Amino acid sequence: MGTRARPSRAACLVVSALLGAAAAGACTGGTDQGTLTPLRAVGANELRTPGDFASIEDETERSRALFVEAARVLTHPRCINCHPNGDVPHQRDSMELHDPPVLRGPDDHGVVGMECTSCHQDRNQPHTRVPGAPKWAVAPIEMAWVGKSLAHICEQLKDRNRNGGKTLGEIVEHNTHDPLVAWGWDPGAGRQPAPGTQKQFGALFQAWMDTGAECPKEEER
Amino acid sequence: MSIKLRVNGVERTLDVDPEMPLLWAIRDVLGLTGTKYGCGEALCGACTVHLDGQPVRACVTPVRRAGGHAVTTIEGLSPDGKHPLQQAWIELGVPQCGYCQAGQLMTAAALLKAKPSPSDEEIDQSMAGNLCRCGTYTRIRAGIRKAAGGKP
Questions:
Q1: Residues sharing a CB contact under 8 Å with residue B52, sequence separation 6 or more, in sequence order
Q2: Which DSSP string corresponds to A108-151?
Q3: Class assignment of domain B2-76?
Q4: Would residue A89 count as lying in a domain?
Q5: B40: buried, middle or exposed (CB in 10 Å: 19+, 13-18, 0-12)?
Q6: What are the pLDDT digits (tens) for B10-30?
Q7: Within 10 A of A187 (CB to CB), how many other CB atoms are there?
């Protein structure tokens, strides 16, 4: 199942980052590749901590692996659904297009009559199940994540021309404390939250920054 | 909890649960029944009112959000029922059963205020959240065109 496969996939990405694509089979095929210590197994709703990556001695590779782990949040439907690679956000775990039909509009807050805040409030609405948080909006198109590689997403996050003018430290702060980001772990109405906690997510980004903010290679997805 | 808001130009003070949907406050507390309950989940647009000029779905908007702000309902769209859209609606026979039309008009009014001469595409994009079971969409579009001063 997809949800159970996530941890092993993340672990595989780390192994392939260490040894190159040829070693990726070691994750799934069980071939003996020597002395690598597998990452701690976690459930689909958990995140590894930065300490779990201490066994990766090469700092560049450790940084890449930390990003791959943090990207389990970035690419979770609660987060990526509003980073569409087009004009219409997604919804639900199946990432279907938003219903009612809405558009990002000129400022990523919808078109007149169909603004995000025509329906979405500053918090979840339990009785009507309409999700909400402060600053509800579609991510700008330059921050599109749907259909993009982890390498692309990583480079975008580091590019001040495409990340809202933020320094790396500001990105870490944003991911750790922003109330709209926080919604990913408190989505309401029985929706599946992003894995781990926002604090853990922020710690992964901090560790990623501290290890050089290296980006995964293009083939790592 | 006491919540002060301006409804159709009149200052009102409501002693209600702040989480009460604005639609309940409008209809059941203030007795303004022109705004309709449709789906209750912001999926049909029948309950659309203006909050400081912006269309919102009153069924999912807690009344606390309107505290200190101006709400306009269909009753307040014009003092005499002669908003250009209302006149076009009558001339073209836009309403059929009429249930959704208050919401349609409130969204259309916000559209024309922001874009006095909208294209057909812009009309469709802005009106996409207002459903009509009678299927009056072509008449709604014609009514908006007419109210904008163009050909229906």
A1: B69, B70
A2: SSEETTEEGGGT--SS-BTTTTB---TT--PPPGGG--TT--HH
A3: alpha beta
A4: yes
A5: middle
A6: 999 999 999 999 999 999 999
A7: 17
CB B115 within 8 A of CB B123: no
Q: Which of B73, B76, B23 is nearest to B50 (CA)?
A: B73
* Domain contains A54: yes
Residue of A nearest to B111 (CA): A112
Chain B residues in contact with A115 by the CB 8 A cut-off are 54-55
Homologous superfamily of B84-147 in CATH? [2Fe-2S]-binding domain (1.10.150.120)
Q: B122 and B108 in contact (C-beta within 8 Å)?
A: no
Residue B104 tokens, joined: 């349609």
* Nearest-CA distance A118 → chain B (Å): 4
How close is the nearest chain A Cα to the Cα of B129, in Å? Answer: 6
Tally of domains in chain A: 1
- Nearest by CB: A113 against B40, B59, B126: B126
**Dist. CA B9–CA A39, nearest whole Å:** 64
Q: ipTM of the predicted structure?
A: 0.96
pLDDT digits (tens, 9 = 90+) for A124-146: 999 999 999 999 999 999 999 99
The per-residue DSSP string of A17-73 comes to HHH-GGGGHHHHH----SSPPPPPP--TT----GGGGTT--SHHHHHHHHHHHHHHH
Nearest CA in chain A to B114: A112
